[in-house]
Every structure is written in C-alpha cells, then in structure tokens.
Design a protein that fits this description.
The complex is a heterodimer of chains A (about 850) and B (about 550). By secondary structure, chain A is an all-alpha fold. Chain A contains 42 helices and no strands. The N terminus of chain A is likely disordered. The chains are: A mainly alpha (about 850), B mainly alpha (about 550).
Chain lengths: ~850, ~550
Amino acid sequence: MSNRTRNATKGEALIENCRSKGKWQRVIELTDELKTGSPQNESLANFLVGEARLESYLEEHAVAAESNFSRAKSSLSEARRYLNLALGESGQKAGVALDAYLLLAKLCYACGEYEQSLENFVKAELNTLAEQVLTLRSLKILAESYAIKGLCLEQQSSKPTSKFKKAEKDTEMITCFERATDLGLLYLQEYEIFCMSNNSNSSNNSTHGSTLNVNSGVQQSASSFAISSSSSMASSGAILESHRRMGVILETALQRAPIVLIKAGKLHLAVDRYRIMLNAVDTPATQSLRLTLARQLAEVLLRGVSGTIYAPPFTSKTGGSTLRSGGAGGGGSSSKRLWKPRKYETRQQFMPRNQQEEVILLLLIAEALAVRDTVLSQSPEFRSVRQHAMGNVTAVYDLLTLATIRWGLVQLLNESFEKALKFSFGEQHVWRQYGLSLMAAEKHSHALCVLQESMKLTPSDPLPCLLASRLCYESLETVKQGLDYAQQALKREVKGLRPSRSQLFVGIGHQQLAIQATLKSERDAYNKLALESLERAVQQDGNDHLAEYYLSLQYALINQLGDALSHIRFALALRMEHAPCLHLFALLLTASRRPREALGVIEDALHEFPDNLQLLHVKAHLQLNLEDAETALSTVQHMLAVWRDVYEAQLAGEEEKHSDTKSGVHLVHSSQMSDKDSNSVYAASLAAVSRVEQALSEAASSLSSFTQRPGPRRPWMLQIEIWLLLADVYMQIDQPNESLNCIHEATQIYPLSHQIMFMRGQIHVYLEQWREAKQCFLNAVAANPNHTEALRALGETHLMLGEPRLAEKMLKDAAKLDPNCPKIWFALGQVMETLGDFNASADCFSTSLQLEPSCPVLPFTSIPLVFE
Amino acid sequence: MAELVKDWLADYQRARRQPAESEAFVVEHETDPEIAEAIFTIFSERQRNEDLVHDICQQLLSFYRAPEVTLHKFPLQFLPVLIYTYLHAVAAGDKKASRGVETLLICIYNGEVSTDDGGQKVVAFRMPILAQVSVYHELKNLPMTDLRRWEENCNREVKWGPHLRIESINAQNRMRILTALLFCYNQQVSLTQKSSLLHLCRVTSQLVNQGFTTKSGHGHRMSYGSDPATGATFPKPSSPRIPLSASFLIELVHAIYYAMFNGYGTVAIQTLEDIHNRASYEMYTELILVTNAVRNSLHANPSGQPNDGPMGLSVALTPATNTVTTSVSKSMITNASFRTKKLPDDIPIQVQDLTMAPATQQQLASVTEETEPVAKESPSTKESSGTRTSIIRPSMEGIKAQANKAFTGFKKKDKDKEKDKEPPKPPQRKFDKHTQRNSLLQLQTQATDPGPDYEKSPLSVSKSKTYDSVADTQPTDMLPMQTLSLINENGSNSFSIESDMNDGIAVLSGLGSNVPVSSNTTSITSSDLLTKSFDSSVEITPMGHSNSNGGKLAEHGLE
C-alpha cells in the first residue's frame, strides 16, 4: 500500500490528492492521461478506474439497502471487471492488489454478497496487516474494510455450528468494529488536517478549485461584506462536506460497535467503547456522530447501569491501559499507537467520578451540539431537516429531564428550555415542559404565561388549563382568572376520562369568590354555584377525598354543620391521614360544642403530623380556651421550635427538597396577609388609600432600621403568626410585657402587618389604654378594611370611649362582612343597649345566642387551600 | 408455593444453628431462582398467607443483617412489593397487619442511610460544567453561550442525604422514607433478578391505580344522609386510593425506565402510562415533567423504542449524509448561524460628528434594513415619533454616541446598497422580500409603516444627507439599537444582519411592547439575543414563501 506512494510522480500525487478528496470524475480523467503517459502502469490505472466507478456509484446510491442489490450488481459490473484486472501479478507488482481486494470486498458488500466479501478480506489478509503510516485514502479504505467485515460477519446468514465457534465469530466481529472505529476516527482527524492545509493552498492552486473551493470562494467574496458571517458559513459548509466524506459505511460501523458489544452482553466494554470514541479529538465531521454517541452513552448509563455496577471512565484495567499509555507516550507517537485516534489530553480536565456526573456532562455536551444544529427557518422546504434537528434536541432534553429532576435541578432544565424556545415555534412538547419546569421552579407568573401558550398548542388537553387554574388559586391569588381556566378545562374534558378534577377546580374557584365577596347577594350566588359544582365533583369521582373535603368546607361556610360533618367523615374514610381534613374536622367539632373531642382529634393528628404548624395552631387555641394557658404556652413554644427546624435550613439558602412539610403549612390565609388584596377592594376610595398610607408609615416609622428578611416570605409570615399567638397567650396569663416583647419580635420581621397592629391594640385594651388602642385598631382597619376582628375591637373601643354611634357603624360593617360571628352581634347588642334601642339590642343578643353554639374556635377560612 | 417457602424458612433456621451448614445454604440460595419467585407469589396472595408473610419478613430481616453479601442484598429486590403491601395496609387503615413489613422497612431504611462505620450515608456528585474541559470535550468546539452556562455552579455538589435514622413511620415522614428506600433499590436494580422487574411493574400499576379503577364509587355510601353525630363506624371503600408523593413516584419512574429497557418493554410502558395518569390527576409538576419526557422519548424520536435493539439503541444515521444537499442548507438558518461576540463594556463617546437627522436615526433604530424608507420617512414620521418616545429614553450622552455609531453604520450601508443593485436576480421579487422583512422588523418600533416608499429606495442615498442641518434641533428619542445591513451574496438570496444591541433591556421592552409574536421573529427575539449584549450576525432566509408568518407581517408585506 505504501510503496506506491514512495515512487509517486507528480501526476500520481495529483491523483492521490483527488482520491483523498473523493473527486472521482477527475481521477478517471487523470488516469486516462496516466495510461497514455506510461502504459506499464496499466494495473494501477485499472485499479483507479475501478475504484473511481465504485465510489462514485456508492456516493449516489444508498449502500446495503436490500432493494438495491440487483441494481447495484448490474451497475457495478464494470467496476468489478476493472478491479479484477488489477488483481493479477502485475497488480501485486504495482502494489494495488491488496487495495483491490479490499475494494472488491466493499463492492460485494454493496451487492449484498456477504460471503464473497468475506472471502476477499481473507485474500487480502486483512487480519495480518501491520500498523504503519498510511495515506489518507488508504486509511479510509482500511477503516471501511474493517467496518464492512464487521457488518458482513453480523449479517452472515449461516449460523455457526458450535458455541465455541459462535464466540469466536463474535470476538472477530467485535475486533473488526473496534478497529473500524479507531481507524475511522483517525481518518477523520487526518482528513481535517488535510483539508486545512489544502484550503490554505487553494488560493495559489487554481486547478484544485472544484467542489470544496466553490463554496469557500463564495464565502470569501461574501466575507468582504459581512465579515462575521463568513466563517460560520464556511464551517457549516465544511461540516456538510465532511458528512459526505465520512460515508454511510463508516458512520454505521462507528455507531454499531458498542451496540454489538451490548448485544454480546458486554455492557462494560460497550460503555468503554463509547468513552474511547468520545475521548477522541473532535473534528467537524464527527460532530453529529459525537452528538449521537454522547446521547447513546447517556442512554446506556441511564437505562442499564444502576449505581452499584457503574465504573468511572478510564479507570478499569483494560480501558485504562489502552487510553492512558498513549498519554504516557507523549508526543513521541510510538509506533504502536499509529492506528489509534488522537485523544483529548489536557491538564485539569474534568473526569467524571460517578454516574450522575458522567450522564449530566454527556447531556450538556449533547445539548450544546444539538441546539447548535437546530433549524430556525420555518419555510416548508426545511421541514424535514427542522424536524430531524428538533427530534435530536428533544431527545436530549428528555434525557436531561430524567437525569436532573430527581436531584432537584429544575433550574438547569429551566434554562435549557428557555433557550429552546428560540427554535421551538409550535412545538407543544417543549412548551409544555417549559411551563411545567417553571411551575416546579416556583416561578409562578412566568409559568402562567407559558402555560397559556401550551393551551393554544394542545387545544384538546385539559391539563395545562388545570395547572394554570391551580397557579391562579394557589400562588397568584387571581381567583377569577383561575376559575376561567378551570371552566375551560371542564369544557375540554370531552373524553370524560376524569372530569372530576376540572369540576372540583370550578367549585374551588366559586368557593373562593364567595369567601372574598363583600356583597351578600354576590356571596350567596357564588355559594350556590360552589355547592352545585362540588356536589357534581363528588358524584363524578366518589373516591376523591379532596372533593369531599371541599364539599364539607362549603357546607361549613354556609353554616350547615350537619352536612359538613357527614362529608368530612366521608373524606376521612377515603383518606385517613390528611391534615386539612383532620383540621376541618376538629373545627367542625368545636362548632358543634364538642371541643374536648376536637382536642383529641388534633392530638391524634399531631401523632401523624408532628411538624404541622396548622394543627399546632388549632391545638394552642383550643388549649387556651379549654385548659389553662400554661399548656398553650408550651404548645406555642413547641411551634417556634418546629418553625426553626423546618424553615431555618431552607431560609439559609439550602433547598430543603425532601422536607415533609414543604409549603404544606401556611398558617396565615394569604388573602389576609397581602396588602394588595385589601387594596383592590377599596382602591377606589382615595381617603382609604391615605388612611392606609398613614397606618403603614406609622408602623414603619416605629422601627428605625427595618430590613427585609432574606428568603421567601411565607415562612416569615408564619413566624409572625406564631409570635402573635404567643402574645395572645401571654395576655391570658396576665403578662402584658411579655406580650409586648412578642409583638416587638413580630414587628422586626414585617412591621406592616395589620394583624400586628390589631394585636398591639388588644394589649392596649388589656391595659385599658383606650385611646392608644383605638389608634391601633384604626391602623389595622386601614391596612385591611376586611379584617372583622379589628372592626369589632374598634367598635368595642368606641363604646368604651363613649362614642356609641361610631361603635354602631363599625360593628354593623363587621356584621355585614361576617354575619356568623356571635361576638360581633353581642357587641352590637351592647351598643344598641347604650343607645337605648332595646328592641334592636334584644334582637342582636338573641342572634348572638343562636350563633354561639355553631361558632368554631377559629374561622373555617383559616384552613389554607389544599390541592393534594 | 407455600411449601417451597416453608422449606426455605426451615432450612435457614437449621442453617443458623449449625454454622457449617450456613455456608452451603448461602451457596444454594444464590443459585436458586425459584425462591424469590415463590416469595413474590406469597406477597401477591398475602390475604391467604398472613402468617407466612410475617415469617418471611422476619427471615428477610435476618438476611439483611447477615454478613454474607448475597444474603444481605437479597431482601432489596422485594422493596417495591414490600412498600406496596405496607401502603395498601396503611391506606386500608389496617396498620396492625402490616407491623412486620413496617419493621422490615424501617430496618432496611436505617441500614441504607448509614455507612458501614455508622455514619450517615451521602450520595453526592459534582455538577459538571462545560466551561471546564473534560475528557469528552474541549472548549473550542462548543458555542460560547453554552460554555458560559451554569458557570457559577462550578464544583457545586448535589447531594442525596444525609438522612436521619428513624424510629417509627408516621404520615409525615412516610413518603420520604419510602422514597429513600426506592432510591436505594434503584441503585441496586441491575443486580436483581430480571424477573423481579416484572413484579415491580405490576406492583407499581397497583400502587397508582388502586381506587381509580372502579368508575362508580358509591357502593360504600350506605349511610349517606344518616345522622353523622352518632359516630357510627363508616363502611370503608374496598380499596382506597394510596397517597403517594411526587418524588416517590419519580424514583418509581426510574425503576420502570430500567425495566423498560431490560426485557419488559410492553409492561413497563403500560405502567408508565398509569403513573402518568396519576401524575396528571394529582398535578405533580415535577413528575409530569419526567413522565412526559419518557413518553415523548418513546414516541417518534431517535432515542429508539425499547424493542429496537439492546436498550433501545439503534444506529441513527445523519440524514445529511443522504438527503440534504449543500445548497439547501446554505440558506437555512440554524442556531449555528448566530455567533456571539462580546462588546466592549462601554462605548467610546465621540462628539465631533453629530450630524444625523433624527428621522434617519429612528430609521436605523427601528431595525429596518436598508435605507429605502428614509426618503419619505422623515417628514411623515415627525408626528408619529411622539408616540414612540415612551419606549426608551436613554441619556443624552448615550444618544450622542449611538447616533454617531449609527451614522457611520449608515454610511457603510449605502455602500453596500450599491452592490445590492447589481445582482442579476429579478429585482421585483427581491424587493417583495425586503418589504416583508422590513415590515416585520419595523413593527418593533413603528406602527405606521410607509410601505409604498420602498420603490424609491435608491434615491435615499443622496437624500439622507439633507437632514444634517436639523440634527441638533430635533430631539432624538430613540436608541439606535440595531443597525442592519442587507447583503446579497452573489444572488444566493441570503441576507446578513449585523445587529448591534447595546442595551439588552431597552430592546427587551421595545420588543415586548410592539412586536407581534410571530414565528419568524424567533431569530431576532430569541432570548439569547435579548439578554446578552453582543454583535450577532445572522443569515436570514428570505421569508417570502413562508405562510406561517404572523398575521401582521403578511398585512404589512402586502401594503
């Protein structure tokens, strides 16, 4: 093979150059000249013509497609004849016989004659070839020969007779594929070097200006106008050009090698083969191959290699010796390594130590490669290319999802999908995954926008609507919008698979609207709608505890406690250990004058949910009302300890992924907490706004150095709530100073809470400082005009200060907002008595008496929304 | 089956008493595949064999504590079945019956979360980043944006654990414990017998489907409407739903994924569907992400089906080898067409040459390519400029610099335009395309589009100079964000945009308010372009053929 190059004349060098570049037409032309020049080169000429015909045929026709065999046979007969002519003794002399045999084998393979192909390999003595420096063309022929031999062995129809022979054949096949991969990669690396040196010469040498240089010529002329664009275009052109260079046979063999190993049950060897191929220095030609290989290795690792049988790359004895010894040899390029591709070898390169590292690294590389090739053009002629690229990239995304979500790395995924939007117009999968990942990363409003797009892309799927609805209810506090989505989801449930969820969400929406409504007529209407849809939800899915729970809550809200109790029992029968159900059950028991039982329920529930602040909160209230305040005090102290355990780590910045109580506890009903909500009710009134401002500025000025606590808001709000409860408890045991300290602690966290203002007022009431108390309550009411407790307390304070008319006004407002509270009616009765309106007073007192037995220890609305 | 298991129990009891026999037992046990099968059967018929289940649990526990590795690992393969048995009993309110299983699970959990020397086990890995070269890549072959990505995560550790040991299981920690157990199961899954994967799939389906299968669950509504205050025991539904958490199910999906590619494709796919249905019902976003990903990878894409080959791998040839010719892909925009270049942090302020007409600046600012509309634009847009001012109000210094820059860019473009006229392509068609592109891009800042002016474009070269005089008096209200040059490369029909975005945020707001979301704008409105300041050069195909353009685009193009 090599002796031919030694005595190469100028013409031969030209031919060799054309062969390397695959310009077969040109080779045939040159060969004619060669023949006329020196007739003794006949077998060489025959060989070259045969080769050129074979290769140019294969370039135009798919290899190894069964249907093509007969046509290939007829079309290639000429090439076969030429190659056979080059076989004889003269061919031996000219040094082309070996190559001719190899090419004949390739030809046979293209015709589907696997046995003959193998025979030709035997004749060429392929197995005994020694490693030596080869020309580019010879390198390719050899790489392809190994590849073809491997493929032939794999497709050989005759079954080996014995087990031993089969194993022997398998080993041979595997060796062939391995050699093919090494040589193939080496060829591609050499080819790139060849191209680069060639390109730099091309400007001088005009005769070389065929295929490649037409492109680069265009690039160069373009580059004078748009400098930055030319190089990228040139590189993309080169990539495509090199795709053609690699050829189907090599590409198949490169991908086939590890698969064959897996089939033979040698998983570790297969993984090592992948690693060796990926470790080889990249060339433009191998980039798409690299993408495939990286993805496939990630797949193998995810699908077949669980934690314990994983071995890190390049550490095992076999893999290590082949790889690392090359590195040890250094730049000397010892003769043994001639047929191995060059590898990545730099200092401080990242070496995966375990499965996760390797998988994520591979996927990140694959993603970068796949994303680069994605097609942005939307015109129809690129459709198939676009879809192919999209398929590649989504495959990587899917694997990335699988690999990262388990470890809570949603953020990473999020970024990937964000980048993907650029080329994902109308791709419902990417949009949906993006929306979901945003939701999982708790970027609520952003998630909603993406889900809206997702809804458009899948017009028949209720899921995105339901998710959007949940977002609106749970995080964005836009109940009306959420209800719209829920109704949309219900409309989409044509298949009727599980319409109960949509129905339930419609019910929840109505229920929340009813709670927020201030007009009685509006509230009644929503209550009616809520009841209807929740009843329907329960009918549609009798096993759904959540529907039962909400139905029970709905009955409780409209004061039908009997129905509420029976439904909460159904809910508990469906799911015994459901904290909100138990919570509601306890409240319902207190509303049925069975507080002791309620305490029992709560204590039992706390056995199962020891860290549930909601339940502890109820427990403390019950203890405060039933037993002495000392036990309540210890409960609240326990709450503070629990808060620290659960949230401190979380607030320190560490994501508490496996926390049991993650966001399951929000003591404060969010609508009470947020100023935004209360503003939206009374935003029209300018006076109200100024009052709010006054209240807030007063609160803020009370603290000279207020800094926002780090981390999410909700845990801090919880802590405020605990402090306020503690203040309440201290007042019960006559320690107002301790109470004030608690309020001070709460103020440190967030001074603008109306509940803090209210509690401060309560202490002033306790100390009988009526004027101060009045100001505090006024502040609280200004901050949240819907806070009925503050309204009531304000009314009572007015009464104490001898302002019964104002008291009447406040208490009537409070009663309008919450007509089921006996305390308000009682206070109103007292006011009426003072005013001398005894009839009205009697009415009020009797209403209060009627309501008192069915009043829960805490309002039913104090249970936060649940969706699980 | 029961006999087999009883023998097995008895054998081990005997072996334990006589150390000599125990070795033989271990060897025999390792080679006998039937016993595991028998145990699976007992678990699936546990109602009939309650005592036996208890005994098995005890024996598995002593296996788990045994020093021999094969015995120690043996119970792990039953984890999914044990978990199902346990959860089923808990959901049915029958905790007493599941004490044996519960004890076994607690012991295995405590064992698995501890290291051999009694510490807490942590599975951790370093988060790989592309910015550091690895054995699989070097920096020069990957795009900058990808390399920079996640850079801050350098050497960040991702951890599983440490987990505290537990003494009892309650509703609060139950799912966390079972999730950890499944994680351990997944670590070992390739060591277990392949047949146990089948049981895994079955049990998983039962876990997620229980309580969902019966359409009408009203059988238990006997006492509906009766007096609830009596506190009479309520008839329970025969099989209540089993509460499951998202992370628990994610671990299950991983196990199922393994089964899918190791011989149980069909069953596993069905199980995955079951999990997905449950996930959608409960709306566990993270879980839906994962099930969606696996389901999508099973549909049409190159990852391959479980039955395609070993582990669903098959040869995925690049279609480029066969179909795509160089000429087609040349005019195609791919992501690789974008190249990013970092701009200097600050733009040098040049004051000497502030002579641009504001209208021209607006023209340039509005990302329209070429200068055709300039001819008429200045007078007509003076009124409309007022409506646009609100978008961006840069500081005067910035404007000066920008204006100057824009002007120089403008001059260059004029030169380019000369070339533009030369190519032999039919000019009418080309202008159509320009119009479309123009209109698209102009929408970003300008609602009034002087469409008919395009024909006069060649004149603009000279006219643009005439506004020099008014330059100082006119308030500049727009940052020239992008300059766009249109180049026809020897008739190859591809244009190159040089965009020069200096103020990513400003552009963002500008785009956000004015651009209709259109398919074609993806090339320009992509997040990369928006959020990073750089110089991008884009190859853009003429979009004349595309019918998927936004409605507005078409409208303007036809004007």
